[in-house]
Amino acid sequence: MKNFSTVGTRFAWTALFAAASAASAAPTVCAFRPDAPDQHLVVKGDTLWDIAGAFLHQPWCWPTVWDMNRDAIANPHWIYPGQMIWLDRAAGRLRLGRPLSPGLYEPAIRTLSPRVRTEALGQDAVPSIPPGAIEPFLTQPLIIEADELAGAPRIVATQQGRVFLGKGDKAYVRGELGGNTAFQVFRPGAPLKDPLTGEVIGHEAFYLGTLKLQAAASASAGGDVHTFTVASAAQEMGKGDQLRAVPPTPLRNYVPHPPARPVEARLVAVYGGVNHAGQHQIVSINRGKLDGLDIGAVLRLYHAGVTVRDSTAGQGWIGRAQQVRLPDEEVGSLFIFRTFKHISYGLIMQATAPVAVGDVARSPE
């Protein structure tokens, strides 16, 4: 997490995106592309975002033109390589199957046993976005929110007083475990501040490894120290480092969709030790679960309009030229893949200009 950058300007990068920025105005939301194919054979390596983009101007419109309910949107394990998606132009819908005649289609039915089908969900289902771009960020505690930091258990001593712990070493921990036995170890880093309010909404967290509970503290003996064993060590860990329960394995397949309610956010940080972000780079924003964001939500990215002096206007009564705010400029789209209460991680799916801290992310109109 130390690679997050919250400073810098855009420099001359904008020139690299000039051609893309010159594209025509955005088409009507949720309209099919005029060059949309009649059908698409799903192949290994496809993503839902790519498939949706082949048919629609805006990939996040997928749920609008598909027969899905909200539950299906949240966990869509139903598209596999070898299936056919075709465009029912008369109905303005996308179907899964094979067209038989105008207005008729043959549904794609997978004749698999329940056991094989369950196994296939994780192995064969088409992912929403390129999975390799977000794998390290799905479970590691890269952001720790303030309330989580305050009550986190901590390492108070090490085996034989060692400065650093390695795999198999013992660690002695104080704090409430909440019935959990597996924990991630992290070290709090720099605070993350809301670009608008300046309020600290979380902290960077350096992921150090994992601990497994060996023996809980014995209340009968008057002790409050738990004994842990180091299960894995990504970096050196030791006295003072803190613990967080290992989260459940996340579902990784979500249809792109607009948030359930309007959201307006600002970029808090860019991951990777750089000042700017482009396509398939990761950023954090200052809105999360409590603001209506869920996994798979898509936001549009904008450069916030700056305030400039209008030298063409007449002088005001105080003798100053008028100040005007320029419109926000759309520069891309953001796919939310992990949410906390007040912060979310997103993968930039398209970018026509470099994205930087303070830029705007809001719901598609």
Automatic annotation (TrEMBL):
InterPro entries: Bact_Kbp (IPR052196), LysM (IPR018392), LysM_dom_sf (IPR036779). CDD domains: LysM. Keywords: Signal. SUPFAM superfamilies: LysM domain. Transmembrane segments: none annotated. Residues 1-25 form the signal peptide. Residues 38-87 form the LysM domain. This is LysM peptidoglycan-binding domain-containing protein.
